[in-house]
Amino acid sequence: MSSHTPKTSSERHLYQYQSGRFKVSLFYPNSYQTAMASLGFQTVYHCFNSQPEFSAERIYWDNSGRPSASVSGEILALSISYELDILNFIKALIKWGIEPFADKRSGPLIVTGGILTLINPLPLAPFVDLFLIGDGEHLIPRFRRTYQRYYLEGKAKLLEELSKIEGCWAPALGKPQNITPVSYPRSSPLHSAVITPDSHFGDMFLIEAGRGCPRKCRFCASCHIHRYEYHPPADLIETVKRHINPPALVGLIGSALSDYPYLKELIGYLAGNGYKISTSSLRVDAVDDTILKYLVNSGMRTLTIAPEAGSLRLRRIIGKGMSDALIKRAVKKAREAGFNRLKLYFMIGLPGETDSDIDALIKLVEDMSEIYNSGGLELSLNAFIPKPHTPFQWAPFRGEPYLKKVRKRIKQALPKIKFIPRSSGQEKLQALLSLGDERIGTALYENITKGISIPAVLKDLGVNIEETLGLKGAEYQLPWRGFQSIFDTDFLYKQWRKAQILAELT
User: In the chain, what is the straight-line distance between the N-terminal and C-terminal CA atoms, in Å?
Assistant: First the structure.
């Protein structure tokens, strides 16, 4: 039995695995700290190692700008969450001496999953042999059985058989036709397989209270690619108690954690039994005195909230219609409870955004700085990036000049506030990767290997960047239309039109 070689001496493995003859190099194209804070990556690591005769070893993108280890074995599995991590993946293939383009590569077999493949896998398609689109805990066992049966019959036959699995797409076999992600209600909560103090979240046992979101904010991918579901508190408590003992730190994960109907009871039980608790971002309308008290008593001192937009008008357009008074009341409660730092997340460049919305954002932050002193506030101004499978997939990306102008204006108006750095150039590239097709992947490769600018390559490939990033009508052919989501295009477009009408009327 083996827990597999720890990547740092401080790792604690919660499972033991048999060594298998089929070797998988599991690559996360970002830092070790980020990878170990990803519950999806940890789940895939556990799933591969739980398969008979399979062994997975982890590889990361090292802080020195190269992969942390070489690839060994027949399978390179990529787990990817962020658009910009595609660059690190391409660079890693080059560093390893592996042919990047799948149609020219004899091996290893590159298999890819992760949240990004549920949103838009197309920019990765030139480099990937097989996409597993959906829940890894269901797809990996099916992949394993088919791989074991056909791996000796050549790559073409293997991909032909693997592509018959629901949720699997082999780009070499053609454009996708109604690929539906594999997703079922989870019978047990996802949780950490490895605990390490070197994770971004520290020495924390992560557990998923639920996934998806019932709110359906129009910009949000998470609530449009996953149906909302949550686990009974008894299941969460049993999982925590099975793997860790008090006073260990439990991190409750969920894109709609504030909507978890038993949140107060769950946190109360864990805290009452000696566990320390941390949470992901909370909705301001769910900030509760009792919950805040439990979190502060657990040692949590930074609260993260995401108003997203500065004015009630704009928040209604995006589907997050909380009032300024509600936001400020939540901030006041956090301060009184003992949180000495507050992280605020806003988006700029949203559909319908005007100068008055930026004025409102500045005023809202000024009001919050009177509750907190300015040194206790940290502000993140993220560019709005249109996401596939959301109502805002037809919305424009506002562009670098606009983003720079707005950020400059806000920073000048709030000189005492700490800002999290953002690059408008990187955000434009992220938007291209979010909204583009296979050609943006090819352009990245040309840029990395030959230094040719991405716009120049895209122009040669026939891509109109202004059209890709611009406002789109109902007739626009969305590149990802061959991939299905839980909401059909007609429903999403009606939501987009509602947002446009709200913007026109207010």
Answer: 64
pLDDT at res. 37: 96
The answer to whether residue 9 scores a pLDDT higher than 80 is no
Which residues 6+ apart lie within 8 Å of 192 measured at CB? 14, 39, 42, 204, 205, 206, 207, 243
Q: Kindly report the pTM of this predicted structure.
A: 0.95
Tell me: pLDDT of 286 over 60.
yes
The C-alpha atoms of residue 330 and residue 324 are separated, in whole angstroms, by 10
Over residues 406-430, the pLDDT tens digits come to 999 999 999 999 999 999 999 999 9
Q: Among 6, 52, 45, which Cα is nearest to 24's?
A: 45
Q: Answer for the pair 133, 161: CB distance below 8 angstroms, yes or no.
A: no
CA distance 78 to 114: 8
CB-based contact 83:116 (threshold 8 Å):
yes
* Whether residue 247 has a cis bond before it, omega within 30° of 0: yes
For 204, the enclosing helix (H) or strand (E) is strand 204-208
Residue 450, SS3 per DSSP: helix
With beta carbons less than 8 A apart as the criterion, state whether 30 and 85 touch: yes
List, for residues 66-77, the tens digit of each pLDDT value. Answer: 999 999 999 999
Confidence of residue 158 (pLDDT cuts 50, 70, 90): very high
Strands 12-13 and 194-195: antiparallel
Helix (H) or strand (E) holding 22: strand 22-28
352-365 residue pLDDT tens: 999 999 999 999 99
Within its chain, how far is the Cα of 249 from the centroid? 23
Buried/exposed 309-332: b ≥16 CB within 10 Å, e otherwise: bbbbbbbbbbbbebebebbbebbe
Per-residue model confidence (pLDDT) at position 2: 39
Neighbours of 350 (CB within 10 A): 24
Residue with tokens 């949140």: 263
How far apart are the C-alpha atoms of 441 and 449, rounded to whole Å? 13
Q: Are 150 and 143 in contact (CB under 8 A)?
A: no
Separation in Å, CA 174 to CA 78, 170, 177, 196, 442: 21, 7, 9, 42, 17
Distance of CA 431 to the CA centre of its chain: 14
Contacts of residue 494, Cβ cutoff 8 Å, sequence gap at least 6 = none
Backbone angles phi, psi at 302, to 5 degrees: -115, 125
Category of 349 on φ-ψ map: left (φ > 0), alpha (ψ -120 to 50) or beta: left
pLDDT tens digits along 131-152: 999 999 999 999 999 999 999 9
Contact 195, 151 (CB under 8 A): no
